Amino acid sequence: MKYKDTLNLGKTKFPMRGSLPKTEPERQAKWYANDLYHERLTQNETKPHFNLHDGPPYANGNIHLGHALNKISKDIIVRYKNMTGFYAPYVPGWDTHGLPIEQQLTKAGHDRKSMPKYAWRNLARDFALEQVKKQRQDFKRLGVLADWDKPYITLQPEFEAAQIRVFGDMADKGYIFKGAKPVYWSWSSESALAEAEIEYHDIESTSLFYANRVKDGKGILDNNTYLIVWTTTPFTITASRGITLGPDFEYAVVQPANDDRKFVVAAGLLAESAERFGWNDYEVVATHLGKELDRITAQHPWDQNVEELVMNADHVTLDSGTGLVHTAPGFGEDDYNVGKAYGLPADVTVDAKGFMTSEAGPDLEGKFYDDVVDIVIDKLKRANLWMATEKITHSYPFDWRTKKPIIWRAVPQWFASVDQFRQDILDQIDQVNFYPEWGKKRLYNMIRDRGDWVISRQRVWGVPLPIFYAEDGTAILDRDIIEHIAQLFEKHGSNYWFEHSAQELLPEGYTNEHSPNGEFTKEEDIMDVWFDSGSSWNGVLNTRSELDYPADVYLEGSDQYRGWFNSSLITSVAVNGVAPYKNVISQGFTMDQNGNKMSKSLGNTISPLEVADKMGIEILRLWTVTVDTSADMPVSNDILKQVSESYRKIRNTLRFLLANTTDFNPETDSVAYDDLAAHDQYFYTLLNELVKDVRQAYDTYQFKAVFNRLINFINVDLSAFYLDIAKDVVYVEAPTGHVRRSMQTVFYKTLLDLVKLLLPILPHTAEEVWEYLPHENEAFAYLADMPEVENLTGAEELLARWHQFMKLRDSVNKALEQARVNELIGKNSEAALTLFVTDEQEALLNSLNADVRLILMTSQLHVYPANQAENATDYDGFLINVAHAKGAVSPRDRMYHEDLGADPAFPELSKHEAEIIREFYPEALEEGFE
RNA sequence: GGGCCUGUAGCUCAGUUGGUUAGAGCACUGUGUUGAUAACGCAGGGGUCACAGGUUCGAGUCCCGUCAGGCCCA
């Protein structure tokens, strides 16, 4: 017989290495084969609800790290909540309408103009659903457990109907109105363009300087004063309605010697203006700040009916021109904004094809906008207002498809008024909890400063605006009609709008006084996609029975303060007066190791699926809890490698615990807390603290605190301390004896608690361990509940005592290390330790009531009063002497003993070991040892 | 240009209401084990807390500015 056969060495088939890339997909297949998602929900049916509402990713393209972080974070929350007494469903969603999908179709060779709208939309729908399918496959590979078979998709008829109803309610409250706003307009394709459809080229333009005669100078400027403005788009002078100044810039009133008129230019641009306009000799007769000239008026260069208003805005610069900007609200975004603030109309004098309209005046009507420069100059010269003409080269937007330049042009748009209920929204923001807290400020400022919401888009792929027009052009926004449309969409989907005429869409027998002949037309614009996803509280939370409105949590990237957090809030407050969420969690963006953003051109991107294939998705999931998700997060292969080291540590520790509890049956072998050995009681208490801290961190969405606490516990408390001393107990002591069972009791609880606490983060690993726990009843670890925090009496004092003792242990380790350096000992068991203790230290040791020699892992320990110290070294207040242990080594426990052979039958073993052998391995008496 | 945010050891993070020699884990170096072994233990080196001012008896912590980086706007 071998001595080794009388030891209880750990035994498990749980592999040291996870082979994660291979085993994860197999494990996930098992989850779905057993419908683990619904299984857990069914188990929680009667529990309080916790509802995390998934923000819909856009159904286009491969998933990237941002997607992965988002879905994994949500999975962690949902899994945790389901394991802590909540019914927490997770319904994933997709955002499917919008321009990028239309662009994909174009790229694939489809021509939108060669087919009816409904046909184009069918192509878009098929494409979107294909993307949803692909992304869903990839999201599942992340280990995210959700209702993947029944996601919400914004193109689903029931979603579209719910969205129409949100619009209907807002219209009913008078929040929807029609206005005009400049958009990128391509005359060559006769349509509005999105930012993404524009490319910039350098072109040479004619820029004009001209003067505007002051009409009402408000007592500051007289009528012989002229405001000199600058424009690079001469045709827009036809729609010029104002002149914008920087409020804090200084403006000079100049009297040139060679002119009897006075002119106004920015003081900072006076010198170059003088040169440009040929003022060889001039005098500055006054200066005024822009804000002092506010609301002065000037005469339009040639249109006697137009009085231009002087306005102030911050977009004015002194980079070029004169510091006075001619303002045509119908032809520019800045112009529109400032004009709106001053109540000016957004007049448009160019038609859809780029030709001047009658409003441009008889000299220009019918001319192409780009051909009117000479006429405009001529008109200015005849009015004696022309000052200078220059050629400039600048970057100008072009239609990416026709390669022709575009213009800004106001077109009719539908708006949702934010002004009317802005204060309600702000009040609701105050009711919401934000993680991190600054999110409240950020969202608040955005809502406070934003303008009305332009909800119409001149595109095809989206939910139509359910608006009709009577014969005289009156828009019909009627609650009953909109509900009628919602019902049609619910049944047929929104393509119905494009497949049928206005008459067919209206309720049978509908009449309207504005349509004496009973004829109607329908709106052709669609809704902004943000209105789609912004309606999800109605399209999903109010539509699916397992969900609740408002939701407990929305969690997205910080770009969504402008996006989904924003649009959802507006529609929800507009309709119901409440925010759609109680908590908002926002996350930063993933950066490379140097803190720079990831981009394909820099080659610093990391694909989540590649990580899954090479290292396992558990590594990426673990990464998400090592970083501060409230700010930007660094990722690189080196960082992931570091994370995988942590994973290995976790895995190996679980493995050791498993290996040493295989012969332990918790039902029959457990030792009660009060009967545990002192060191086990201590560790039990430490574990309880861990559970407390980790649960609290989970409850407040502090995942990196979860990780830090767990990894420190595993490294410091478990691996370096408890498991290290454990080997002298668990391997050596009697297999069913009290000391061993005591420790195994704590091992087993540690193992179970760790597996559960880790599960939301590492579900694959947790489930793998679970397969090695035959005494647990749940078929999956995920069906178990989180460990509860116990109220252990006297825990605080116990921890304080041991905390003190650990300082002694540190000192002992240093002493032993010194002895090792001096080649007095090799391993700790070769040492005989002598402590010379103060009264206080002695009291501490006694109060522990513990086997101190065992915990310090030496073969022999002696304790004497400090005043008897001899050959002792002071290690941080502890007097310690290390000597070589006396006696000889037992081949079985490898410790030094002075009583080897006390039992003559076993000359190489100590008395204690001999007793264990006689009781548990009596065959050794016959066989002897090799 | 504006709103919001970030910047502590090579890496990822802690640093409570400003108060003793700034901490942890990983990595690194040395070393011990070889009964957690493509593992484990012990010890050690490593930081002018982005930079420059200011408030204070005292600042990683508060204030101002600069630089670098990020999200969203213009």
Automatic annotation (TrEMBL):
Gene3D superfamilies: 1.10.730.20, HUPs, Ile-tRNA synthetase CP2 domain-like, Valyl/Leucyl/Isoleucyl-tRNA synthetase, editing domain. A motif ('KMSKS' region) lies at residues 597-601. Catalyzes the attachment of isoleucine to tRNA(Ile). As IleRS can inadvertently accommodate and process structurally similar amino acids such as valine, to avoid such errors it has two additional distinct tRNA(Ile)-dependent editing activities. One activity is designated as 'pretransfer' editing and involves the hydrolysis of activated Val-AMP. The other activity is designated 'posttransfer' editing and involves deacylation of mischarged Val-tRNA(Ile). InterPro entries: aa-tRNA-synth_I_CS, aa-tRNA-synth_Ia, Anticodon_Ile_BEm, Ile-tRNA-ligase, Ile-tRNA-ligase_type1, Ile-tRNA_ligase, M/V/L/I-tRNA-synth_anticd-bd, Rossmann-like_a/b/a_fold. Belongs to the class-I aminoacyl-tRNA synthetase family. IleS type 1 subfamily. ATP binds at residue 600. The gene is ileS. The lineage of its organism: Bacteria, Bacillati, Bacillota, Bacilli, Lactobacillales. It is found in: Cytoplasm. Monomer. GO terms for biological process: isoleucyl-tRNA aminoacylation. This is Isoleucine--tRNA ligase.
